[in-house]
Amino acid sequence: MTCPSAPIQQTTTRQTVLIESLRNDLVVTLAKCGALHDAHQLLLSMPLCTVHSWTAVIAGYADQSRGQDALFIYSLMQEEGVKPDEYTYVALFKACGSIPDLERGVNLHSLAMREGYSSYTFVGNTLIAMYGKCGSVKEAENFSMLD
Fold it and tell me: What is the rounded distance in angstroms from the CA atom of residue 100 to the CA atom of residue 130?
């Protein structure tokens, strides 16, 4: 016997997925438009956030040279168990360069290497910039010579 509520459950599930998708898209849009407070608040109110939403807010803060805020959002992302992608690392390296926080940058570089992201050209370019901004020109030169 088929449950008469099955179509309702399916519709509700589809609507929930659509709503969460729209919320994630809105976080990304707000962050890209510089409405970081709104993006941050919406992100924190959502039950399920994608790596793209987290990264958009991190990148927004990093682009505004608010490295501490970017790293704080990253710590929340870690608490939620969301794995960073290559774009997250780029934003985090920018954040570390803006503070500057060489120790944190080196730790993040190590994580990016383990994940295989540091071999991406755009990630490597951001790493070189971070090392330079953190006053570690020698490390930037060494890294740029690894190609």
Answer: 8
Amino acid identity of residue 113, one-letter, is M
Q: How many domains does the chain fold into? A: 1
Residue entry with tokens 């958009």: 56
* CATH classification of the domain holding 100: 1.25.40
DSSP state of 47: S
Q: Using an 8 Å Cβ cutoff, are 78 and 94 in contact?
A: no
**Number of helices (H), then strands (E), in the chain:** 8, 0
Cβ contact 128:137 at 8 Å: no
Q: What is the mean pLDDT of residues 99-118?
A: 96
**pTM for this one?**
0.86
The answer as to whether 1 is a domain residue is no
Cβ neighbours, 10 Å, residue 6: 9
Structure tokens at 21: 């998708």
- What is the rounded average pLDDT for all residues in the chain? 90
Q: 103-127 burial, b if ≥16 CB within 10 A, otherwise e?
A: ebbeebbeebeeeebbebeebbebb
